[in-house]
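Lab channel / #folding
Pinned by the channel admin:
"Please post every new chain as: sequence first, then the structure tokens as a reply. Keep commentary short and put observations after the output so the thread stays searchable."

First post following the new format, from NK:
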Amino acid sequence: MGAFNPGPCEAGLSTKEMDNLLLLAEVHDIGKVGLPDHILRKNESLTKEEEEEMKRHCEAGYRIARCSPGLTQVAELILQHHEWWDGRGYPQGLKGEEIHLLSRILVIADAYETITAVRPGKKVMSAEEVITELKQGAGTRFDPHLVEIFLKMLQEENGDIFP
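Reply from TO:
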């Protein structure tokens, strides 16, 4: 399974929006720079307190980007990159189209990267399991229309690996 790299046409993005999406993909977790190593490297589930500390990385990243020439155009997108389509995300509890399009695209691509990443002790998912995982998140975590576009692009890119 290759890395997801949408062209401007597939998602209806302008060249500027595509540039911002690519920048966002590179820096969306910049706020994690302030998190302690024991949280970042922890292999088991985080405690409630550690989860709360981890959730603050969106706001920290937003503040860093607001003060960094070259990143100001993605600051708001960084703040929104853990918002969910159904409103259960964080930090603002935004819902649906209140969430910027580029942040809605990133959350799908980021989830795809996470579930397909090869890591020690982690079972590699089949293409069908990846599709199921993304479809299950459509309408809750993810914009359902964007999931459809993403899956169509994966199928075009990977052929019969993705039925």
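NK: The longest helix spans residues 101-116.
TO: also worth noting, Confidence is low (pLDDT under 50) at residues 1-8.
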